[in-house]
Amino acid sequence: MIEQVKGTRNLFGAESEKYIHIFNTFCDAFVDYGYELVELPILEHKELFIKSIGENSEIVTKQMYEFKDKGDRSLVLRPEATASVVRFHNEFFKNESKKYSYFGKMYRYESPQKNRYREFIQAGAELIGTIDDFSDLQIIKSSINFLEKLNIKAKLNINTIGSIEERNLYIKELESYFKKNKNNLSKESNEKIGKNTLRILDSNDPLDSEIIDLAPVIYQYLDEDTLDKYENLKLNLNNENIEYVENSKLVRGLDYYNDLTFEFVYKATVLGGGGRYDKLAESLKLGNSAGVGVAFGVDRIINCINYVPSSKKIMLIGQNFDDIHSVTKKLDKSGIKYLLPIRKSKENTQYKEAIKNNVDYVINCTEKTIKNPKNSESFEFNIRNLKKLI
After folding, report:
1. How far apart are CA 83 and CA 48, in angstroms?
2. What is the rounded distance in angstroms from the CA atom of residue 12 to the CA atom of residue 130?
């Protein structure tokens, strides 16, 4: 038997209903507020992510699905979308400032576990071009709006990681510190020293916790202008009555970030996060457009929300095509959605199919009745009665 590929996921039934709900809510919170939806290619040139994410990052060294095509080009299945959006923006709208949103699948080869898949879904938004502190605030507010529409009260964590130059000075200090303490670090963290040192701060291994807690704090290596930007962000958040927690270890682990980094945490799970990336376009040799963005793990949101569709599910049954046709015309005219049996079968078989589909009401088109299969209540079928019920 050919089995499902490890690390992939089927969304069906209640999970697919959650997926549709999250997509529609995302559009309500971002697309309807001016973040233009862009459907990006799943295939990208490998070079795009080596230059953006970082040659020594774990994503590039261990997690990318890469291959040579028939033209001997090095391609990858996109592991994230920010670099792709920046590539798109500078290819088609280089001298403009624009807002984008995206919703789609990404791919990383890592150990599958709860909330972590090799094929996963991300929803995100980016502001690219000439941006400022208002742009930073805007992306955070839009993100909170999105989560609140899903009835998620997440905790906002913020930090500043300074300019790329300041961060490089900090990384040197971290390398020195972790080398002195390498005997007390986990094997995985030891492998990151000198290659992806910042990511050690993200470690959840209990072996690393005490060493990380005592590590140098980045604020000591930031200049006055950088710290002023950070203070201004906090002032803007306070003025908007947005609650937040400062986390000096929040680095987001991707080479292209500078200054602002942030995450949204719900019940100990990071649902999304982002930050500023003012030098990303420049590092890709695409121009000088700055950016700020956010990305959400849709799979994680699916796993954490309770969702009951607001509209009632209706199914039509009947033994006569003319009877069914007559009812469907009335429902179509009234804008009421409905299910039909998969084939013409006995009435009892159709009714069992309705129960299997977990419908709220069954309309018997021949008998002209509306029945609630959960409590067996029955009503005369007419549009007025049906609208009262749904």
Report:
1. 7
2. 42
Q: Does residue 182 belong to any structural domain of this protein?
A: yes
Please give the tally of structural domains in the chain: 3
Q: Quick one: which of 252, 7, 257 has its CA closest to 107?
A: 7
Q: Is 327 found in the same domain as 204?
A: no
My answer on whether 207 and 254 are in the same domain is no
pLDDT tens per residue across span 30-55: 999 999 999 999 999 999 999 888 77
- For the chain, strand residue ranges (E) read 36-37, 43-45, 65-68, 74-77, 98-107, 119-129, 155-160, 245-246, 258-266, 269-276, 290-297, 314-317, 361-364, 369-371, 378-380
Is there a single domain that holds both residue 60 and residue 173? no
> Tokens in use for 13?
């039934």
The pTM of this model reads 0.90
CATH number for the domain harbouring residue 133: 3.30.930.10
Name the H helices within 74-200: 82-92, 133-149, 164-180, 187-192
Q: Which CATH number is 327's domain given?
A: 3.40.50.800
Residue 366 burial class via C-beta count within 10 angstroms: exposed 0-12, middle 13-18, buried 19 and up: middle
Q: Of 127, 161, 132, which is closest to residue 143 (Cα–Cα)? A: 127
Q: Angle at Cα 362 formed by Cα 358 and Cα 368, nearest 5°?
A: 180
Give the closest residue to 103 by CA, choosing from 25, 219, 34, 193: 25
pLDDT, tens digit, for every residue of 49-80?
998 887 777 788 889 999 999 999 999 999 99
Range of the domain at 213: 163-221
Question: Backbone phi, then psi, for 336, in 5-degree steps?
Answer: -100, 125
DSSP 82: H
Low-confidence residues in the chain, pLDDT < 70: 253
Indicate whether 31 and 123 sit together in one domain. Answer: yes
